[in-house]
Design goal:
4-stranded antiparallel beta sheet; alpha+beta; elongated; single chain; Alpha-Beta Plaits; 8% strand; 9 helices; 4 strands; 2 domains
Length: 294
């Protein structure tokens, strides 16, 4: 395609937006409202997904060592645990360290002392994939010199099941919202093109190719998508920026944290812009297609 022809298509798309200003406004408004809803929902779901990931990463297996195990046997057990497939990290805690942690948690009024330490040394193990925690725990339990394995059996499985369901429901809702958006916006753009069907018919009758007719409309859809993305990007950015500034001080030191402003906002804004362009182009392409059969 010649540069002159490309320039003509761009000029025509801009002229069309100006000539049909009210229809352009209606289409861009539909894109704006839909993308604003999608942007807010994506923002919420991505933060919920981070919370779910943080919960999963916090899951660990506590391996209590037999009281009769000496240092050599404890080191051998450590080596065997490290060699298990699926183990990401391992930390050893002596009897004294376990007692110190217990006293720090519950105070010194428990009647415990270093001279009368009933606790066991322990290994704290994290699985490479948190969902494989149960499998890793079962393998460790078969090793010699392990007294007991603690990882929240029964509760962990329910937690992972809930998180998987929450992720799947969120994904389905986002996809449903996107398909609804594409349907509504394509119908709005179709109304714009229906009002200009005679223009398309005349161009076809004088010999214009389908591509020559379609490109200005597709470019117009792209501009509508970009125009419709500006307000959602601005509002979502302002909303998240202010929420982050308000909530983050209260979440310092807590398990749950919001995604940092950067690069999160850049990712969401690019996603909104790409969706706006895609929906605008797709809506225009599908809407003009039926009028090319002259």
């Amino acid at each position: 395609m010649k540069a002159r022809t490309v320039g003509r298509h761009f000029r025509e798309s801009f002229k069309s937006l100006s000539r049909n200003s009210w229809m352009t406004f209606a289409s861009a408004s539909a894109v704006t409202v839909t993308l604003l809803l999608v942007g807010v929902f994506v923002m919420i779901m991505m933060n919920l997904n981070k919370v779910a990931d943080d919960l999963e990463k916090d899951v660990e297996i506590k391996v209590l060592v037999e009281l009769t195990a000496n240092d050599k046997e404890a080191k051998q057990l450590e080596k065997e645990i490290k060699n298990i497939d699926g183990v990401a990290s391992l930390t050893y805690s002596t009897k004294e360290a376990e007692l110190e942690d217990l006293i720090n948690d519950f105070g010194e009024n428990m009647g415990l002392s270093e001279q009368n330490n009933p606790l066991r040394a322990a290994f704290y193990v994290k699985a490479t994939n948190p969902q494989d925690t149960e499998k890793v725990a079962e393998k460790i339990d078969r090793l010699k010199n392990t007294y007991s394995i603690e990882y929240g059996e029964g509760k962990i499985e329910k937690l992972f099941e809930f998180l998987n369901v929450a992720r799947n429901v969120g994904l389905v809702l986002i996809l449903a919202l996107l398909f609804t958006a594409m349907f509504l916006i394509s119908n709005t753009i179709r109304i714009t093109i229906v009002a200009r069907r005679r223009e398309i018919e005349i161009m076809k009758l004088v010999g214009a190719t389908n591509g020559f007719v379609r490109i200005p409309f597709v470019l117009e859809g792209m501009w509508i998508g970009i125009l419709g993305s500006i307000l959602p990007i601005t509002l979502v950015s302002l909303l998240y920026f202010n929420l982050y500034k308000i909530l983050q001080p209260y979440l310092e030191g807590e398990m749950f944290k919001l995604l940092p402003i950067t690069p999160f906002l850049y990712q969401v804004n690019i996603l909104i812009l790409v969706m706006g362009i895609f929906i605008g182009v797709w809506g225009s392409f599908m809407s003009v297609r039926k009028f090319l059969r002259v």
